[in-house]
Specification:
The protein is of the alpha/beta class. The chain contains eleven helices and 14 strands. It has one domain: Ribonuclease Z/Hydroxyacylglutathione hydrolase-like (Metallo-beta-lactamase, Chain A, 4-Layer Sandwich). Helices cover about 35% and strands about 20% of the residues. It binds zinc ion (ZN). Zinc ion binds next to loops.
Length: about 300
């Protein structure tokens, strides 16, 4: 989801002084519908409530969330509602999700607040080609010289993300199963398409407190309001594939997907990470698959 589109559309409408039927403007600007509703683990969701949960307010999208260690060498450096992760190694760091370009100084500050150097970022990865997750890639690359690596299927959509007219940098592309290695860290890319064609869920093993844990950086699993047959087929493969990933620590590209704020409040020195939560590794998939199926059913009955 991107917040800038609405503004751009209104500005161009005003500039063109074209009379557009109100229904068109409504369709482009309206929040998603408040139906269907699905209930998972006693909690009821609609497309509108999920989007609100993910994005929060404009201020939530751009305000620093206290940067913190998640587990092992993984740190949270994002805003209140847009995740950005720093994975540190002795040979430099990996950044997953630059978020909006205007957030890059926020991420830079979070990295510094944790005592790391932004200029030590060597590799920029992303979960998916939407502006709220990867618009800042060019700015981070400019500041660090890091390499931007992208899932092949997301390249066309990434090329369309051009803040201020800047080309989206892509230094190399990869496919499903790619292992990205740096300084003893291995991140594995899993193609989990649907939300975008190249939606990438990353997995990584970490050591913490003498134990090993599997971490999952989930790509958004949220279906659009209107689901094409191609996208339906992608999601049909993605949900079971996602559930099969080894997981002790579920993370996501929006913090609400894994209850970050509630878990962060439980962080305590010397205690096991509150982000270790194997019981909730698939809850986001459960919510999104229920909504996907309900939306498809609604769509099919409307078409009859
Ligand atoms: Zn998205």
């Amino acid at each position: 989801m991107t917040g800038t589109f609405r503004v751009t559309l209104l500005a161009s409408l005003a500039a063109a002084s074209v009379v557009i039927p109100a229904t068109v403007i409504f369709a482009q600007n309206a929040p998603p519908p408040d139906h269907p509703a699905v209930t998972v683990k006693g909690q009821t969701y609609t497309p509108r409530s999920i989007l609100a949960r993910n994005m929060g307010t404009d201020a939530d999208q751009t305000s620093q969330f206290p940067p913190h260690k998640v587990i092992g060498n993984i740190y949270y450096v994002g805003t209140r509602t847009l995740s950005s992760y720093l994975i540190t190694t002795p040979q430099g760091h990996i950044l997953i999700n630059s978020t909006y370009e205007r957030n890059v100084p926020v991420i830079q500050k979070s990295v510094a607040d944790l005592g790391f150097r932004f200029s030590d970022i060597k590799i920029i990865l992303g979960t998916h080609a939407h502006g709220d997750h990867q618009e800042g890639d060019a700015a981070v690359k400019q500041a660090t010289g890091a390499q931007v690596m992208a899932m092949e299927q997301d390249v066309p959509a990434l090329r369309n993300i051009k803040p201020g007219g800047k080309e989206h940098p892509i230094d190399s592309t990869f496919n499903d199963g790619k292992q990205v290695q740096l300084g003893g860290v291995t991140l594995t890319a899993h193609l989990t398409p649907g939300h975008t064609r190249g939606c990438t869920t990353w997995t990584m093993a970490v050591q913490d407190g003498g134990r090993a844990y599997n971490v999952v950086f989930a790509c958004s699993l949220r279906a659009p309001g209107t689901i094409s047959p191609e996208v339906a087929a992608e999601f049909a493969g993605t949900y079971p594939k996602f559930r099969a990933l080894p997981c002790d620590v579920p993370l996501g590209d929006h913090p609400a997907q894994y209850n970050m704020i509630e878990k962060h409040a439980r962080l305590a020195n010397g205690a096991p990470s509150p982000f270790i939560d194997p019981a909730n590794c698939t809850v986001e998939a459960d919510i999104q698959e229920a909504m996907f199926k309900a939306t498809l059913a609604e769509q099919q009955s409307a078409a009859k």
